[in-house]
Amino acid sequence: MGLGLLASKGMRPTSRFLLNSSNPNNIFVRTIVSKSELNKPEPSAAPEPPQADLPPRTPVADARVHFTNPDDAIEVSVDGFPVKIPKGFTVLQACEVAGVDIPRFCYHSRLSIAGNCRMCLVEVEKSPKPVASCAMPALPGMKIKTDTPVAKKAREGVMEFLLMNHPLDCPICDQGGECDLQDQSMAFGADRGRFTDMKRSVVDKNLGPLVKTVMTRCIQCTRCVRFASEVAGVQDLGILGRGSGEEIGTYVENLMKSELSGNVIDICPVGALTSKPFAFKARNWELKGTESIDVTDAVGSNIRIDSRGPEVMRILPRLNEDINEEWISDKTRFCYDGLKRQRLNDPMIRDPDGRFKAVSWRDALAVVTEVAHGVKPDEIVGISGKLSDAESMIALKDFINRIGSNNVWCEGIGANTNADLRSGYIMNTSIAGLEKADVFLLVGTQPRVEAAMVNARIRKTVRASHAKVAYIGPATDFNYDHEHLGTGPQTLLEIAEGRHPFSKTISNAKNPVIIVGGGIFERKDQDAIFAAVETIAKQGKVVRPDWNGLNVLLLHASQAAALDLGLVPQSEKSLESAKFVYLMGADDIDLDKIPSDAFVVYQGHHGDKSVYRANVILPAAAFSEKEGTYENTEGCTQQTLPAVPTVGDSRDDWKIIRALSEVAGVRLPYDTVGAVHARIKTVAPNLVHVDEREPATLPSSLRPAFTKNIDTTVFGKAVENFYMTDAITRASKIMAQCSATLLKK
Amino acid sequence: MKRRRAGGVPKNHLFYFSLNTSIITIHKQHFLPYELVCGDSVSYYREMASTALRNVKVPPNSASLEEARHRLFEFFREACRSLPTVMEIYNLYDVVSVSDLRSSISSQIRKNTHVTDPKVIDMLLFKGMQELRNVVEHSKQRHHIIGQYVVGRRAFEQEELGIKNQGTSTFLKNFYDTNYF
Amino acid sequence: MTTVVKSIVSSIKEKGLGGFFRYLKDEGYLRCLRDGNLLQTKIHNIGARLVGVDKFGNKYYEKLEKYQYGRHRWVEYAEKSRYNASQVPAEWHGWLHSITDHTGDELLLLKPKRYGVEHKENLSGEGEQYIYHSKGHALNPGQRNWTSYQPWESKAEP
């Protein structure tokens, strides 16, 4: 018999008095709680008198109450505090408004209510049992109690059951440190367990190259199942079995083929679904978070770049109700390993034998200047890329203009694109505004691959209000009901002339929305197509003072800012006659169009397509390494912040052009980012109002009149491979894996 | 004389050899004879032994530019003589050659060619000796040497170049150096 | 003494004179003249029990009678010229220091196959190449590259 046991035996008689317990049987019952009053959880009988002089509590996580109809307001009391909430709120929401945080696992504000984790049990007066607050609608005069012995005991019991089959592998679990179960068992759980049997174990599922599963850790909250079927729109995940045989699975061996699958990692409250590329790479408390903007598409999702030292370790979404809510696409989340591969780190000059030699910045700029001075000004062309920020684009435009050329544009924008009217190239409805629409007409755009977050919004609208979606373009995959009207401009023409049944649907709609794909900008007949679209808009009253439903869905992060700054090609033939081409990250232009005797300067951060044609390489910073302004497709200006240092000897984009301009003798008048912003302000003032969406003022009605000389070639697909669209994603191994496994037919 | 020999002189020599390897020549030339010539040296050495570090004295100032110049060359020679040791203890063989290091030292000295005040030269020399002592005694690490005298040499050269392109703006000068300014 | 002479004579007969000298040399008897330590070990060995030989060839002896406790177990190193205590492998260490009575051969059976590493003697002072250098050290032949990104490498025209 150990000494401690002896000691505790000796202690027992005294502990009875010390505990001051009225129940002498207590000492023989092995309790899991430390407080004696928790051992007799009778519903607290007498209602406490409301204490009016207590200070009001702040709502949890800025929970807001929006009364659409003041008559619908009901009053409930939470822990004695009276709270006014609209009808239809659940008990849990009422508690949040009252400033009481209820523990929960299965409840998620953006998903449907399941009510199966039972963690949110609270006591409601005159209710015989504790109620699951997430699933219980609040009724007028309800008296909710969240800190009574009943509620505490209920939580402890639920927690004990949840932990019963949960493995004790927190030290090797990637969720460790940011795990809801860890946190809540610390806050609400018992200090010991009574389970001595074998824990159950579950076979792991293969969900593809992005999501790692450790199904033994799963607590069956079904958040992932609901996310997949409600938000992502894929019916891949489901629940099998009952009781302790219950499992989350894919029914048959099946990968999760969704462009939003990474979000299940975030919503999983435990470590059952974690990030496969991030597995065992870092702990979350080692990481430095930098709030930044995604540049892999034109949505501009708000992200947090988590870095450790000079390395980006992972990318997580940031809440922005107007743009990406709290989701991001897989491309955004997992492209980060592309930032570490194929990087350009030194200025390089191509030798006569075709090999590149690293040189100093001084020499590289001298060579570029020498060549630039040797050609005629109108043979100089500058093209900015998909990932360019506004600062570098204004610098490029100013530089090329000062040399004497006007040939400067952004890739993905064809000749005679109309950049004069802002409403002609941005998403006028705004992404959040799409939720009010009841009819969608998608013209030559596949939002699922072009802008996954916009597609999620459309899907949300379709689910919520059964909005009609019609689509013109090549056959493609949608994850909601839609009507495929046709493949080419011919159908558009029919609707515009009122020969198509769908023109009636538009005119009858309350808030119709037309979304034109950014791929149209590269068509030669874009004016005619836009004219047709505007005719439809005019007939269907799509543009009204209170509703602007005419949208363009851009493709690249830089496009909106480029159009704002006027980076539009002047003529179609300027590239074919160029002698000096300055590519600022432009990798998707047709390299065969550049004459073979032209001198090509490539400024960028990745050794992608264009470096193989370049004569001089100037290394620049990627979006995770610089402060850059980006405008998203709805016209919202946002800024990236440097999360990690630049690699090697690379420099910020605008600084390179500023330095080059001085060496070339046409010194640009700005030395700091602030000065560049001042210059931008004179061209496009909306680009300096960060985090603000500037709606376009003029309705686009100054277009050339509707003509019938439309090219009848069908609309093309703007994005062939969702996972590989730009230099960063093409360099990423994870994205390559995704396109190999998930896009496989 | 007898008392002095019996007293602290040998001990004192030991002390010099162990502590002041780089400035020992100066001490021998200027400081020891001076102390030996005048005053009660025995009591001085006793005090020296007890409060050794407090009483470390710098050599007297150079009287003329000529003398300062002489000392400078003396210092340069000493630095060059220590270079093989430096190469050995910092394992610099595959990084840099002795002649590179030598030119690095000389370029640092040339950086101050405009200084004519013997007092200032003495001060700079003292700093140089300190640095040399730190290097020779392995008070530094390999990356210090590489950073300051191998990679850092390019900065010296660029500064020399800087005289040529005086027309450039501060922006461009900073740009050539680093991305962060 | 007579037994020693007898055994010498018999082994000369067996191996011939040249073979006998080679044997003397290999077993370190010739070094005994210079190395008192070795000589003492050899004298100790007379009449002692050879308990085991490890895989390096070190011989482990024990003699319980007449010897003082603590001096009853010893090792004769396989290496006759430069021997030191670190040449005793882990499995024999316990026996040699009277930590256990299990011999090294018995303990070797308990050695984990999957992650048990080979015994290595301490080679300090035996040359630069034996000194441990950490993975970031300039003298480590496989010095780790700490660059966190992979640069683009220029190739000739694809």
From TrEMBL, chain A:
Chain positions covered by the region annotation Disordered: 38-58
CDD domains assigned to the protein according to its UniProt record, in alphabetical order: fer2, MopB_Res-Cmplx1_Nad11
Location(s), subcellular: Mitochondrion inner membrane
Composition bias type Pro residues, residue spans: 44-58
Enzyme class name: translocase
Cofactor(s), by name: [4Fe-4S] cluster; [2Fe-2S] cluster
GO cellular component terms, semicolon-separated: mitochondrial inner membrane
Gene Ontology biological-process annotations: ATP synthesis coupled electron transport
Keywords: 2Fe-2S, 4Fe-4S, Electron transport, Iron, Iron-sulfur, Membrane, Metal-binding, Mitochondrion, Mitochondrion inner membrane, NAD, Oxidoreductase, Respiratory chain, Transit peptide, Translocase, Transport, Ubiquinone
GO MF annotation terms: 2 iron, 2 sulfur cluster binding; 4 iron, 4 sulfur cluster binding; metal ion binding; NADH dehydrogenase (ubiquinone) activity; oxidoreductase activity, acting on NAD(P)H
Enzymatic reactions: a ubiquinone + NADH + 5 H(+)(in) = a ubiquinol + NAD(+) + 4 H(+)(out)
EC code(s) of this entry: 7.1.1.2
Described purpose of this protein according to its UniProt entry: Core subunit of the mitochondrial membrane respiratory chain NADH dehydrogenase (Complex I) that is believed to belong to the minimal assembly required for catalysis. Complex I functions in the transfer of electrons from NADH to the respiratory chain. The immediate electron acceptor for the enzyme is believed to be ubiquinone. This is the largest subunit of complex I and it is a component of the iron-sulfur (IP) fragment of the enzyme. It may form part of the active site crevice where NADH is oxidized.
Similarity comment text for this entry: Belongs to the complex I 75 kDa subunit family.
PANTHER family: NADH-UBIQUINONE OXIDOREDUCTASE 75 KDA SUBUNIT, MITOCHONDRIAL (PTHR43105:SF13), RESPIRATORY NITRATE REDUCTASE (PTHR43105)
Designated name of the protein: NADH dehydrogenase [ubiquinone] iron-sulfur protein 1, mitochondrial
Annotated source species: Lupinus albus (White lupine)
Automatic annotation (TrEMBL), chain B:
Family: Belongs to the complex I LYR family.
Organism in which the protein naturally occurs: Lupinus albus
UniProt keyword Thylakoid present: no
PANTHER family per UniProt: NADH DEHYDROGENASE [UBIQUINONE] 1 ALPHA SUBCOMPLEX SUBUNIT 6, NADH-UBIQUINONE OXIDOREDUCTASE B14 SUBUNIT
Topological category with respect to the lipid bilayer: Peripheral membrane protein
Keyword Electron transport (UniProt): yes
One cellular component term from this protein's GO annotations in UniProt: mitochondrial inner membrane
Keyword field: Electron transport, Membrane, Mitochondrion, Mitochondrion inner membrane, Respiratory chain, Transport, Ubiquinone
Phylogenetic lineage: Eukaryota, Viridiplantae, Streptophyta, Embryophyta, Tracheophyta
Entry's localization field: Mitochondrion inner membrane
InterPro entries per record: Complex1_LYR_NDUFA6_LYRM6, NADH_Ub_cplx-1_asu_su-6
Biological process per Gene Ontology, one example term: response to oxidative stress
Official protein name in the record: Putative NADH:ubiquinone reductase (H(+)-translocating)
TrEMBL record, chain C:
GO biological process terms on file: response to oxidative stress
Primary localization class, coarse: mitochondrion
Membrane-protein topology: Peripheral membrane protein
UniProt keywords, alphabetically: Electron transport, Membrane, Mitochondrion, Mitochondrion inner membrane, Respiratory chain, Transport, Ubiquinone
Localization terms from the record: Mitochondrion inner membrane
GO cellular component, one term: mitochondrial inner membrane
Domain of life the protein comes from: Eukaryota
Assigned protein family: Belongs to the complex I NDUFA12 subunit family.
Main function: Accessory subunit of the mitochondrial membrane respiratory chain NADH dehydrogenase (Complex I), that is believed not to be involved in catalysis. Complex I functions in the transfer of electrons from NADH to the respiratory chain. The immediate electron acceptor for the enzyme is believed to be ubiquinone.
The name this protein goes by in its record: NADH dehydrogenase [ubiquinone] 1 alpha subcomplex subunit 12
Organism the protein comes from: Lupinus albus (White lupine)
